[in-house]
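Example 3.2
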Amino acid sequence: MRASHPTLQTVGRALADQRHDIITDWANWLIDRVTPASAIPREKLERELRLLFDLLVESVGPMRRSVAEIWYRACEHYGRCGAARGLAAGEIVEEIQYLRELLIRRVGPVLTGLRQRQAMSIILRLSSILDKGIAVAVVGYTDALVATLLSKNGVPAPGGDEIGRQLEQIEGELAAIVRHR
């Protein structure tokens, strides 16, 4: 059974209501587990987390088909930034898996109020979105490593303006779609 439109809106609102807390928890967890000399400033990392979260919220809403490609691009970018932060591929996976854990803890109570089939549909949808995002993030990570080895363009320089420029472009694409709802 596919989740109904009101169900999607309910979950989307619940995600939006928890946005600040989830992003703060996610960013704190990421910062606590990496060395303080991370190549990417916390502000840019939080900006990227906000972008990923906002795309995730839109991915369970009525604009889900419109934001799918942007979600993949943002996840690929996240993987590339992970390479710039000096992470291993498994750490990229772990970081996005932690978002799944936060979603379960924070949005779970809303899901218990839904009919069982609706809640399961939403859980499967979120898991599918996150799983695809993880796969694309690992591809972005691998591409960044290969590009570094081959000295190709497209790999964001640690702490450089390139990361901000790339984030701005992806954020602009999301804003254009959200404006047309």
